[in-house]
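Notes continue from the previous slide.

Worked example: a multi-chain complex. Inputs as given:
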Amino acid sequence: MYALELQNLTKNFGKTAIIRGVNLAVKKGERVAVIGPNGAGKSTLFNLISGRFEPSSGNIKLHGQDITGKRPYEISRRGLARSFQITNIFSRLSVFENLRCAALFASGQKYSFWKPLSKLDALNDRTEALMASLELKRRRDVPASLLTYSEQRALEVGLTIAGGGDVILLDEPTAGMSHSETDRFVHLIRSVTVGKTLLTVEHDMGVVFGLADRIAVLVYGEVIAFDTPEKVRADPKVKEAYLGAVLDADMNHAAMAGAAA
Amino acid sequence: MSSILKALHFKPLDGVRIVVWSAFALILLLMPLAAQSSFALTLLCLTGIAAIACMSYNMLLGQAGMLSFGHAVYTGLGTFVAIHAMNKIVGGWWVPMWLIPLVGGFAGLAFGALLGYVTTRKAGTPFSMITLGVGELVFAAALMFPEFFGGEAGINSNRTGGSGWLKDMGLTFGPQIQVYYLIAIYLFICTAAMYAFTQTPLGRIANAVRDNAERAEFVGYDTRWVRYLIVMASSFFAGIAGGLTAINVEAATADLLHGVRSGGYLLFTFLGGVGFFFGPIIGSILLVFALVVLSEFTKAWQLYVGIIFLIMVVFAPGGFSALIMLNLRRVKYGEWRKMRWPYVGMFFFGLIALWGFAALVEMAYQIQVAAGSGTALTVARIPLDAASTSSWLIAVAVLIAGGVAFEVSRRKFQRVWNEGEEHIAEAIKKAEAAIV
Amino acid sequence: MEFFTISLLNGVSYGLLLFMLSAGLTLIFSMMGVLNFAHASFYMLGAYLAFQVSEWTNFWVAFVIAPVLVAILGGLFERVVLRKTHKFGHVAELLVTFGLSFVILELVQLIWGRTPVDYKVPTVLEGSLFKLYSSSFPVYRAFMMLVAFAMLGSLFLVLKKTRIGLVIQAALTHPETTEALGHNVPQVFALVFAGGCALAALAGVIGGNAFITEPGMAQAVGAIIFVVVVVGGMGSLAGALIASILIGVAQTFAVGLDWSFIGGLQTLGVTVTPETFGYPVWKLKISQVAPILPYLLLVVMLVVRPKGIMGTRDE
């Protein structure tokens, strides 16, 4: 059984087909990077999987169960969590409250109003620990809207993993970060997603090679290759369809960097 | 093992919190001593009820970001059901009179469950529009069913009915002071309950939905269900306020349900401030002041309130509670003293400009609305004549001169304020760096 | 038959008036994300200004001047006040227009008093256009319909043929994109706001004398146009048109009908007495229910189809 399985997934906006029959099967514990040129439909694909949009046709299975057309909260409760390309946090709540809210439903509290939050020791301890691992401890009580950009990105990932979902979708987690920030951040992502199934949309090839077990190449709404990094790099179809020489140079560089690390 | 240790671990209440709540209880207890006249006592009763209503309104607006134009539906229906229950008690029901507010509360909860099912289908602006429509629906329906709502005249009841050992002890609710203490006790309990609610998982998720409903869906929350639960909780407390109204005035009329009243809850809760828990309490004081005291002074009171509201929305969207907290923050960082003279200047010229404006408005009203009683009037003890050109010229001159001087002093104030803001930001940065 | 025809015509003319109001509201909402709570207040202002100007000159001057004056006032309000609250979000914007409705109501009472003013239909348009048996259809109603259709036509042309129209149309279908765009074109915002207010004022000019010009007129119609916008579907002009006509016709018919459940049940052979359960409901006449019909429609619509008749945005 696959952790996540997409079958003939399509999505049209009006007459424009954005996703045209995507098939993808991700094994449990696998780390998959989804790459592709701008406008290939990567973010749309994530929006379909996480329930933000409803697919036009096809099926999505999470741990073998059909989740096609389910609402985001239903999908989240089944253990699929996602982050957003454009930071999407609870702006007026503090860092700690942000993370606690994200962990609240999954911790079994649901909509309860008979227990004060301060008495939920296990939840609070776990939130503190998560905050520490995100290196946000010293910003604990600062409203999320006042954080720096890279702190907000860290919080964004924190919100995604706080609920303990086992299938994690990260939409360009390192977008807009400097090199050194990116390196630290990849390390962070790796450490907080140990043992989980991970899908990530990435442009930075260094991140792709540093993180992924397999790479899915999405071009014009179709997956044209889905294999290990080495094989994808060698795939002539990929070379042809995707940026060609530019990609090649990029990948070589990244592979060297990966080997060095 | 660790969980046992934790259970044994004695967690004392936060010292500040004990002081605040004790002070609140003490104020409620001693207030009647300050109120020498029966009129003052009436004001206190109205304020206590309004405080519960405004706090329940803020569960929607401040906590969950839901702007409702129909809150009076829940307070009003609470009052009507409570009045009917009171009449049952007079007719021989065994329920003691002091439980009537709870009857109102459960009525509010029931109507919240019924009507909230419809209103919470949408969020944001559509939610506001729907609450207005549902409010109109309930008000119009009230006039349609005189059997329950008593038509134009409304329904009356009597709070001295019923029986029980407390009544045998002398708790008849005949004297207003007994009604005051009933309201005070309910106010204290409701305030504590509503505060506790803000500290629960549901209360916090309401904040999350307010800030970013979409993200809340992606961490597992059905935001419509959150809205629905919040509306029900809010309606319950609104219903308690309605039940207290039933006891306080012993009558219910359809205007309790009217949109104007709903608008009043919105307006004064906002003026008090939606960002802090105690804001609506300030709002309720302003509400009773405006409705009872200010309306005695001037027929144009709604115009003044409307203009103040507009100014606050544009310049101080946090309401009076935020203004208080901002100034306390200045005090804490030692930045307040510099503000004294700018404050004095701004208020002084502001008052002069206000006099000019008020003189114009009052003279216009004198001619338009109160023409029968002549054209002479006084504004802040200064005699004017609405029929004489010189009075109008004086008013205009004062308004312009005061307005210009006010604007100058306001700019100076703004400058000093911004400087202070920078100092505080630096201080905070230093403190944060020290943690690492 | 005569009742049917006359009621239908009256209903459609009332519905068109509602549409003139809700069109402006929808445009402002779609374009700026602002629900203009004071929209009906601008309608009232239009009626009062038309009354005042026609006192000084005549109806036809007022017909042109009043909407222009209100448009200027609306544009000024957008510039001076509303724009400042934009950074605080939509709740603050809604609140500021709520406060404005308060202030306009008080100012109207301050200037024109609390009793209705004598804003009359011009003599040329008095009398009845045609008679059907004993009922007559007034000329003025026909004039109202004519104005509404003319407005509808020119609105259509502006939206389809001009550049600003294209921007507004984009806002109707893609609010997020245009909101981002909107920061660069504040002129369009002010223009749309002023234009929406002018539409409301025009409705006030022709509605004020057909019905009654009094301080309560804004509140009477304010909630109904909200219903129109929600039932029609947020941001849909076509939906607003359908909902307006629907509500206009339904309310006009209902006012003229004396049927009640008791009568209906009696023809089915069931007798209802004051002892029957739910008697207060059964004895209600349809004419008594007329005022709440729009709100009942709202509730039914929200339960059955929350996005409205023509709505595409599901919240």
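Summary box: Chain C touches chain B through 50 residues (CB under 8 Å). DSSP finds 14 helices and two strands in chain C.
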